[in-house]
Amino acid sequence: MTGIYAENSEGIFKKAVLEAASYASIVNNGPVTAICVGQPNAGEADKLARYGVNKLIVIEGLSAFDAQTYSRNIADVIKNNSLQTIVMANTYSGKALGPRIAVLTDASLVTNVVDFPDASNGFKVKRGVFSGKGFAYVTMQRAGKIIALTPNSTELKENNVSIATETYAATGAGSLTNITNTSKTVGKIPLTEAEIVVSAGRGMKGPENWAMVEELAQILGAATACSKPVSDMGWRPHSEHVGQTGITIKPNLYIAIGISGAIQHLAGVSSSKVIVAINKDPEAPFFKAADYGIVGDAFEILPQLIAAAKAAKN
Amino acid sequence: MKILVCMSVVPDTTTKITFTDNNTKFNSQGVQFIINPYDELSLTKALELTEKNGGTVTVANVGLADADAVIRKALAIGANDAIRINANPEDGQFVAEQLAQIIKDGGYDMVLTGRESIDYNGGQMCGLLGAILDWPSVNVCAKMDIVDGKAHFERDIDGGRETIISALPVVASAQKDLCEPRIPNMKGIMAARTKPLSVVEPKASEGYNTYSAFENPVAKQAVKLFDAQNAGQLIDALKNEVKVI
């Protein structure tokens, strides 16, 4: 039996959860059991059903996120329901839980998975390694398997079923951690979930010039990102830094403005489906990694792109 | 307090990644190896915490003898001693089992890892160790402190930040912004030569995952350039040619 861990984001199952459902449904070639913590909003279970989930088990009685208590209860549900393969999204909370669940269920764990498995000879998955500079094929040895998917890597395939929901009352010791404050970036698309990312580097000359970058991002429904020097200089928050020592992203469209394209930066973005480089230096390495490019001054090009994007979106 | 910093040895960030032996192995020829940058942040933070609260910092690595030079660098930065578990770090779960062996009887108050290693990007060590030891684990921390015998963290969550207070002992992983890495000075480098680096043999493990092949990303076709005077054409191509907006 195959299951998914359906991360409950304030009542919502995000696209990454549906990708996990779709993946599990294809691997299993049959119905899938989903596990979530806390009741989702009305209608959310039906989203899972569209991608092959026929049973949702809601764990009740856990309060704020705590990796230890969450993973214990999730592992109990996995064992009670004889689920062997668990698919989940490799988000920050997925990364907190997946390893713990693997230990508690004695399963093989592979994170950063980017493609459907090859089950013809053992169970082989493809994962990203070397921060975007390579891929590895890994055979999972244990009967129990935890597969953590890089969001936006595998396709959604509809497989409509009907879904039944049951609840499971959390058991065991209480949490040893206590969340005292949570701050969410309101009104912005999280970088790791964004399908379009507009990113800028030192070519913008200073933090005061980011309004144009943000305007283009806003019109395109994109998240904003930046290069390492820009976050090191404090022009932008470190949470926007993409690259080998920042965040690795995989959007459908990555627009790099005034970023030269150092190997460390390319490592973090090279899996993007379409890459656009805008740089005044025609020799900038980014042009070798890009699908589209414009050689020129960002301050002349950005207003044109903003105008054209506005027109295209209307 | 006693802090253990788990450290992996990785190719320098400027390395061009290639594979050898019919794409079954990473080609380490001519590659410069460094302390994994996130582990370096853990190490620096561990030193800051013990300077403030008293205590010692031990560095642990699962690796073969060629890791010793990089481990000595961690000692030069300021760790008190180091333990190397003499095995090829073939898989994250294997590494976690080995590290847990030395943590179990070590009397540590805190175990720090990096958010992930920049070579295999597992991002799993913090959670694996937490579960094996049955300690709380807090990953992707951009701030760490010890106040009144409890650990205070700020960690990145999807789309925000969270402040968490945890009982000790705890496992936590370091995110960028935690601190500025330290550069070893001459005194530190001299002292590192005589600091203890003990080598222990691995325990038997049944194996979780086997790496069979590697590949590089598919190279891009030549870039299609637009004229800077007609930049709007780019938007048209994105909308109608590749249909991504």
Description:
The complex is a heterodimer of chains A (314) and B (245). Chain A has a 7-stranded parallel sheet with strand order 5-8-4-1-2-3-9, sandwiched between helices. In chain A, strands 12-11-13-14-15 form a 5-stranded parallel sheet. In chain A, β13, α7 and β14 form a beta-alpha-beta unit. Chain A has 9 helices and 15 strands. With 314 residues, chain A is α/β, with parallel strands linked by helices. With 245 residues, chain B is α/β, with parallel strands linked by helices. Chain B has 6 helices and 15 strands. Chain B has helices spanning 37-53, 68-77, 92-104, 125-133, 186-192, 232-240; strands at 2-6, 9-11, 19-20, 25-26, 33-35, 56-63, 81-86, 110-114, 137-147, 150-157, 160-166, 170-174, 197-200, 209-215, 224-226. In chain B, the strands form 3 sheets. In chain B, strands 11-10-9-12-8-1-6-7-13 form a 9-stranded mixed sheet, sandwiched between helices. In chain B, strands 2-5 form a two-stranded antiparallel ribbon. In chain B, α2 crosses α5 (186-192) and α3 packs across α4 (125-133). Chain B is globular, with a radius of gyration of 21 Å. Chain B starts with a strand and ends in a 5-residue tail after the last helix. The model of chain B has no long low-confidence stretch (mean pLDDT 96). β7 of chain A pairs antiparallel with β14 (209-215) of chain B, so a sheet runs across the interface.
Main β-sheet of chain B, in a few words? 9 strands, mixed
Which runs of chain A of at least 5 residues are low in confidence (pLDDT < 50)? Answer: none
Query: Number of DSSP helices of chain B?
Result: 6
Calculate the mean pLDDT score of chain B and round it.
96
Tell me the structural class of chain A.
Answer: alpha/beta
Give me the Rg of chain A, rounded. Answer: 21 Å
Count of separate DSSP helical elements of chain A: 9
Indicate the mean pLDDT of chain A. 95
Largest β-sheet summary of chain A: 7 strands, parallel
Question: In total, how many beta strands of chain A?
Answer: 15
Amino- and carboxy-terminal Cα gap of chain A: 47 Å
List the helices and strands of chain A in order: EHEHEHEHEEEEEEEHEHEHEHEH
Shape of chain A: elongated
Structural class of chain B: alpha/beta
Widest sheet: strand ordering of chain B? 11-10-9-12-8-1-6-7-13
Shape of chain B: globular
How much beta of chain A, percentage-wise? 25-35%
User: Count of DSSP E strands of chain B?
Assistant: 15
Instruction: Please give the alpha-carbon distance between the first and last residues of chain B.
Output: 54 Å
Helicity range of chain A: 25-40%
Helix content percent band of chain B: 25-40%
